[in-house]
Structures are given as C-alpha cells and as structure tokens.
C-alpha cells in the first residue's frame, strides 16, 4: 500500500457514495430526475418536490451516510484495539447503554428528541463505566497485552444492558413495541438533524487518522509497538474514546444498525489489505455508502411501507461477506 | 560512551527477586547471550534493557543518557527489540509486516519511502526470505514467522539489537544461519547484539559474552567461555553438565543420571 493506491481507493469509494447519495435524493414515492434534485438543492422554491428533497430525503441520506461512516470506522478501530476480527462497534457496550436508555425514554413515551438525548446519555454512561472498570488497561497500565480483559469487561457490560433491554421489551405496552423494535434494528425514518452525526464524523476522522501508522504497529503487539516508539497506553485510550464516541453518535442518530461496523472493515481488508492509513478513511466512505444504499432499498423496495435499515444491511451484507471470505480461501 | 550500561539494577517479579544489584556494561562489537532457567528473568531483563520497564529505566543508560531521558522515537532508532511472540490477528504480506519496523523512520504523512521499502527487502534477503515477500504472514510456520520477526528487527536499522529467544522454533540449520547473519551484521561500527537463548552450545560458538542468570537473583557475566562453563551452568540450571571434546569441537552435555550418582 502506498499513498497513491490509497487515494485511488478513496476516490472510487467517494464517487460511488456520491452516486448513491444522488439516487437517494431522486428515488422514492415521488421519483425525480437528478437535474431536478440539483435544482431543489441549489435554488429551492416552495414547490412540494423541493420540500421533499430538502426536509425529508436530504437529512435522511446525510444521516444514513454519517452513521454508517461512524459505525464502520468505530468497528475498524475496535478490531485493531482488541486485535480481534470479531470486534464491532457494539462489543464494548456502547450501543447497549444507548438502547437501554432510549427504550426507557420510549417506554415513558417521551418526545423524539428526548429519546435521542437518552440514547446519547446511555452510551456515554456505558463509556464511563468501561473507562472506570478497565482503567488499568486503558489509561494506567503498562505496555502489556491488555486486550482480552478489556474485551471481557466490555462484553459483560453489554450483556448487562441486554438484560435490561429484554426486560423493557417484556413489560412494554403493545402499541410501543413496534417503535422499540425498529429502534433496536436501526431505523433512519424521521432523521431530521443529520448535522451532529456529520460533525462527529469529521471530528473522529481528524482525531484518529493521523494516528493510523501507529495503529498499524499496535497490531503487532503492545510490546513491539512500545519498542518502536508508540506510546501504547495513550494510544489505546485515544482509540477507545474515538471509537466509542463515534458509535455513540451513530446510535443516537439511527439506532443500533447492525452488521456495518463488523463487516465493512473486513470487506475492505479482503479487497485492499489491512493498512490502517488507507483503511480508516475508506471504512468511513464505504460504511456511509453501505447504510445510505441500504436505506434507499429499505424505503423503496416495498413502498410505501418502510423496512428498518438494519434488516437490509444484514440481509445484503451476509451473503456478500461470505462470498468474499470463502472465495479467498480457495 | 557508545554502550549500554546497567548500574545496580534490581528486577522483581511480584515479590520474587529475579536479578539483584546487577552492574554491567554491554559494549559495541559484543554479542551477548543471556542464559538461565525458565522464569529466571531473561525476558524481564531484555525488556528492561529496551527501556520498557518504568522502574528500571533509571538504572540503565545508553550512550551515557538514562533510558528514561530518551525520546521514544530516538530510542527506537537506537535500539530494536524483538519480542518473544508477535501477533498477527489479520492477514498481511510478509513485506508489509517487516516494513512496520520502519515506523521510527517515517516522516510526513507516515507513508514509507522507497528507502524504507529497500531496507525491508534487504532484511528479507539477508535472512533468505526474499521469496516470501508477498506471502501472507498467517500462512507461515512458527519458524518462518520467527525469521520474519528477525528480519523486521534488522530492518529497523538500530545499532543495538535486543532479541528475546530469536532461535526458538527454528531448526538447527536456520538457527546457525540466523546466528551467522547476526555475527556478520555486528561487524559494522558500534553495533551490538543481546539475545536470550537456551542452546548453550550455540551460545558458546557464536556469542562473545554471556550473562548467566541463576533464577535466584544471582548472575555471572563475562567472556562466553568463562561464563558458560560446566561448573557454572550446572549450578544455574540445577542439573549436572559436562564438557566433552572431539576433533576440536566442544559441547556441553547433561550428565546421565546413573553416572552422576
């Protein structure tokens, strides 16, 4: 991998993402041409078409892109931090905390923005909990191999949240259950404010992409990385914070969309190799592309009814990923 | 001046003293073997010498400066460490894996230059791994991984090598090849090697000096033939050894239980 090849990968993914973005704005129950879409974006009038693009499709496409990008990047980061191919954005309990709090807010039928707020608060609480319990691994520790303990700590906290979620689903009244299940699967319906997630994406990229060469080294082991001049403990904390806050921002925007955070980084690794300098920006682009595309399918395939986007990401992602994985071992 | 100096170093594991009050200078041009029984503190000592142990880095100095005063990047260009085991959770080519050790030399946006790539190829070449460059590290055998790790350490281009059991998993032929590569590598100015090893005979043949740990805090250091003697090794390893000689070749061998009685 060199810089030129990385730029080629990024450009191709960015171009594909742009195409899906335009398609997301153009397609739906009221189809329109890309030219009409451009017109609605550049010089909007009071036409109903302009209204649809600006207040419905644009926030939804941007929200989908941002949350997919955040999830894929968080997944790539946690796979490196835990040196474990099975790691994904939710493995350390961030989404569990978000879901438990969001569902509680829905149970008490609070407004949509308090559900978002509760989700973020839950995610944040979960992050603090892991930071406190795994402080030896994350910020005090010596450069020893800490990933198994950190992984177990996070996984157990996630299991705890899981129990609370099941409890709430069990006692929830019939009429709220559907909304709660949609939230848990991941749903972009009603995303009106994509900006917090987009800003979070930008901040996360700026915070972690410069550390990509260090992350490559970290994969060889904590001792090896420390001996090469990487401040391992500090880097570990930085990676954990960026990945968790990225996951928190994504979950707050779109619920717990599954599969993207696990699989997008692996698909890119299989296709282009495991160089974090290429992989982190590429994960952001490909994750955004995947969720935006899946949401386009989710809201058009059985229109006017809508499916939760998380169902589509997994339904398409599972066969694609298995095909890539198995083709390679032959 | 250009040496690694240990001044009254004490190393502990939990409440057990591994090394008590060690004072020793490792000078350029010397190839040191650290020997001793399991759990005697060889790995602990090597990582302390690399500056990875906070408690010990006061007592150890390199080029006249205490290890803890070194900037981590400068230190990484001055000494290279080969840990006992490396992780490879994800697939990567051998070349990319070896090139990771160019990290201390990266500039700008952190992409390798052609010089870094050439250094990695040269290191692979030196260890007879040139044809492995595009192989996946996950497909390698234990011994091949070990040689890839050694190539990575060499390509870091640091004058002091600290190698933790570089010969483990290697067959005899490759053990000797690696030691010959190191003996040749050390010829250049100001280079030195410190490695831990369980094969006392290879150590006697290739190392210039030895540090023998007894696992109870004691140690003896000096020219390899003065330290790895049957008497001292017998005491350190807790098993009687004898030196046999044939046609100018020497070997330390364990005494048969029945004869030793």
Number of helices of chain A: 15
- How much helical structure, as a percent, in the residues of chain A? over 70%
The protein's oligomeric status is heterodimer
CATH T-level fold name of chain A = ABC transporter involved in vitamin B12 uptake, BtuC
Helix content of chain B: 25-40%
Alpha-carbon Rg of chain A, integer: 20 Å
**Ends distance of chain B:** 49 Å
State the domain count of chain B: 2
- Chain pair forming the biggest interface: A-B, 31 and 32 residues
- What is the overall silhouette of chain A? globular
CATH architecture of the largest domain in chain B: 3-Layer(aba) Sandwich
Labels describing this entry:
heterodimer, A: 330 residues, mainly alpha, ABC transporter involved in vitamin B12 uptake, BtuC, 15 helices, 77% helix, globular, B: 261 residues, alpha/beta, Rossmann fold, 6-stranded mixed sheet, 4-stranded antiparallel sheet, 25% strand
What does this structure look like?
The complex is a heterodimer of chains A (330) and B (261). By secondary structure, chain A is an all-alpha fold. Chain A has a single domain, classed as Orthogonal Bundle (ABC transporter involved in vitamin B12 uptake, BtuC), CATH 1.10.3470.10. Chain A has helices at residues 3-26, 34-42, 48-81, 94-107, 112-133, 135-140, 147-171, 174-185, 195-208, 212-218, 222-227, 232-254, 260-272, 276-300, 309-329. The longest helix of chain A has 34 residues, at 48-81. Chain A is globular, with a radius of gyration of 20 Å. The model of chain A has no long low-confidence stretch (mean pLDDT 88). By secondary structure, chain B is α/β, with parallel strands linked by helices. Chain B folds into two domains: 4-228, P-loop containing nucleotide triphosphate hydrolases (Rossmann fold); 229-261, no CATH class. In chain B, 33% of the residues lie in helices and 25% in strands. In chain B, a hairpin with a 2-residue loop joins β1 (4-13) and β2 (16-26). Chain B is globular and about 60 Å long. The interface between A and B is medium-sized, with 31 and 32 residues.
């Amino acid at each position: 991998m060199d810089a030129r090849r990385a730029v080629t990968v990024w450009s191709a993914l960015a171009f594909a993402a742009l195409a899906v973005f335009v398609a997301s704005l153009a397609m739906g129950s009221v189809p329109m041409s890309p030219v009409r879409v451009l017109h609605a974006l550049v010089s909007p009038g009071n036409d109903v078409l302009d209204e649809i693009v600006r207040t419905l499709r644009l926030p939804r496409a941007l929200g989908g892109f941002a949350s997919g990008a955040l999830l894929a990047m968080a997944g790539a980061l946690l796979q490196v931090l835990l040196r474990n191919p099975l790691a994904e954005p939710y493995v350390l309990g961030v989404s569990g905390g978000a879901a438990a709090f969001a569902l509680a807010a829905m149970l008490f039928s609070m407004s949509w923005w308090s559900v978002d707020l509760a989700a973020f608060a839950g995610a944040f609480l979960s992050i603090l909990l892991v930071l406190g319990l795994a402080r030896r691994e994350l910020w005090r520790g010596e450069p020893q191999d800490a990933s198994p303990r950190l992984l177990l700590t996070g996984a157990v906290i996630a299991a705890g949240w899981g129990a609370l979620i099941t409890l709430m689903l069990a006692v929830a009244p019939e009429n709220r259950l559907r909304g709660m299940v949609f939230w848990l699967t991941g749903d972009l319906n009603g995303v009106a404010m994509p900006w917090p997630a987009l800003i979070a994406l930008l901040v996360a990229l700026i915070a972690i992409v410069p550390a990509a060469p260090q992350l490559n080294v970290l994969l060889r082991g904590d001792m090896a990385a420390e001996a090469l001049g990487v401040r391992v403990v500090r880097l570990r904390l930085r990676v954990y914070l960026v990945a968790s806050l990225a996951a928190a921002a994504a979950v707050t925007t779109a619920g717990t969309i599954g599969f993207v955070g696990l699989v997008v980084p692996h698909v890119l690794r299989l296709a282009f190799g495991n160089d974090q300098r290429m992989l982190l920006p590429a994960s952001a682009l490909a994750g955004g592309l995947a969720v935006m595309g899946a949401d386009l399918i989710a809201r058009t395939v059985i229109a006017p009814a809508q499916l939760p986007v998380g169902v589509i990401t997994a339904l398409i992602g599972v066969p694609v990923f298995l095909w890539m994985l198995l083709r390679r071992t032959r | 001046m250009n040496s690694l100096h240990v001044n009254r170093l004490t190393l502990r594991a939990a409440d057990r003293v591994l090394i008590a009050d060690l004072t020793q200078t490792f000078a350029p041009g010397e190839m040191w073997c650290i020997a001793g029984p399991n759990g005697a503190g060889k790995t602990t000592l090597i990582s302390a010498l690399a500056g990875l142990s906070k408690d010990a880095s006061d007592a150890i100095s390199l080029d006249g400066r205490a290890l803890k005063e070194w900037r981590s990047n400068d230190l990484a260009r001055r000494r290279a460490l080969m840990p006992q085991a490396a992780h490879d959770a994800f697939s990567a080519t051998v070349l990319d894996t070896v090139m990771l050790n160019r990290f201390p030399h990266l500039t700008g946006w952190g992409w390798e230059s052609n010089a870094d790539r050439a250094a990695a190829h040269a290191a692979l070449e030196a260890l007879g791994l040139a044809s492995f460059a595009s192989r996946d590290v996950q497909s390698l055998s234990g011994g091949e991984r070990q040689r890839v790790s050694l190539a990575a350490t060499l390509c870091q281009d640091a004058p002091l090598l600290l190698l933790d059991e570089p010969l483990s998993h290697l067959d005899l032929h490759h053990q000797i090849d690696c030691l010959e590569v190191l003996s040749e590598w050390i010829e250049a100015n100001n280079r030195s090697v410190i490695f831990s090893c369980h094969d006392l005979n290879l150590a006697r043949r290739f190392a210039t000096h030895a540090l023998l740990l007894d696992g109870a805090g004691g140690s003896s250091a000096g020219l390899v033939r003065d330290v790895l003697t049957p008497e001292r090794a017998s005491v350190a390893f807790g098993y009687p050894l004898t030196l046999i000689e044939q046609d100018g070749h020497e070997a330390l061998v364990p005494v048969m239980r029945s004869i030793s009685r």
